[in-house]
Write a structure and sequence with these properties.
The protein has 48 residues and is mainly alpha-helical. Helix content is 81%, strand content 0%. The chain is built from two helices and no strands. The protein has helices spanning 2-23, 28-44. It starts with a helix and ends with a helix. The model has no long low-confidence stretch (mean pLDDT 90).
Length: 48
Amino acid sequence: MRNLLMTALMLMVVVLMFIQIVSGDGAIREQIETKGSDAVTQISSVTP
């Protein structure tokens, strides 16, 4: 029973850490969106 509880708590911690890393303030998702919009701007400014 104790092992099951420890496993469940560890999984919860991992999920919460993942959520904070991916979607928190200044997280990876925000950085990817910023870099993506910068790339679109640079590509659209290229003239043939």
